[in-house]
Amino acid sequence: MKQIRENIKSILKLQIMNHRKYLNFSTAVFLLIGSFSWAQFIEVNAELDLRRISEGDRQLFTTLAEDIENYFLNTQFSATTNDLEITVDIRLVLESVSRGGSQTTVNAQAIFSNKMDQYFYAKGVQFPYSKGRRMFYTTVFEPLASFLDYYAFMFIATEMDTWKYMGGASFFNRAIEISDFGKDSDWSTGWDDRWKKSRKVKSNQYLRSMRFNYFKAWDALYAEEVDMTIVNTAVNTFYEEMLTLDKKLGSNKETLHFLRAYHESVAELMAMLDHRDALELLLIYDHDNKEVYESYLKN
């Protein structure tokens, strides 16, 4: 078991180093790629599902996936967060294409994921579209670009929460603001759900605090001079927030997504500090990964 834990620590160290971007690396990237260094997204994989679209209409979307990728990669969503290097997978399921006058309307569903703890399902996606249509970032509501902006801000907000306590608040507010515009627009389909989602995620301060303190603990453990006071405080706060979350919210989808991605390292962290109460709570709350928590409780 000791060797297993040592191996896990090595893996975790790489994960934390990958998650935390160091200044010298960011500087090197700036020198290498210049203007692209200010983008918040470093890798975007967009995929279109056209199975419900007729052969004749499919030719409309030959560049859409690439356009979406380029939009995320080349847009500066914030001038103050330049080194996040977020990775996103996007699956856009096109359901129908309708025409009225000179306008073509697309109805779709979408899934956005960072391949870790962030997963968003969007239904009721509707936007006007024409072949080769370019997207530009603007504060004015534009159905497709604003839809992408909404999820960009949701990813940025969650990432910023790991750097600073409640650090993503302003970005959650941007997503909520876009939703407000969407609800009041001529393309309001789906925007009420997105408005509720962004408010729900922002208001879950227990999970947001858990996420911040999880990374804070690991950052402190891998600092050149380890301060165990910081580590213990962060871990205890994580536990207290999860205890409160369980009592007030019960089974929470976003929290389970977080634990699905990080359950092994969360369990390792609690075991390192002999925090059995936390492991027992995790075992009950995150039932899908109970075997992992049980393995640490036995040792």
Short descriptors:
299 residues; alpha+beta; 4-stranded mixed sheet; elongated
In total, the number of domains comes to: 2
* Count of beta strands: 4
Alpha-carbon distance between the termini? 8 Å
User: What characteristic shape results from the CA principal axes?
Assistant: elongated
The helix-and-strand class reads: alpha+beta
What percent strand? 15-25%
User: Reading side by side through the largest sheet, how are the strands ordered?
Assistant: 1-2-3-4
The portion of residues assigned to helices is 55-70%
Number of helices: 12
Main sheet characteristics = 4 strands, mixed
Which stretches are poorly predicted, pLDDT < 50 over at least 5 residues? 1-11, 21-37
Short description:
With 299 residues, the chain is α+β, with helices and mostly antiparallel strands.
Structural notes for this entry:
With 299 residues, the chain is α+β, with helices and mostly antiparallel strands. The protein has two domains: 1-38 and 204-299, no CATH class; 41-203, no CATH class. The chain contains twelve helices and four strands, in the order ααβααβββαααααααα. Helix 10 runs antiparallel to helix 11. It starts with a helix and ends with a helix. The model is unreliable at 1-11 and 21-37 (pLDDT under 50).
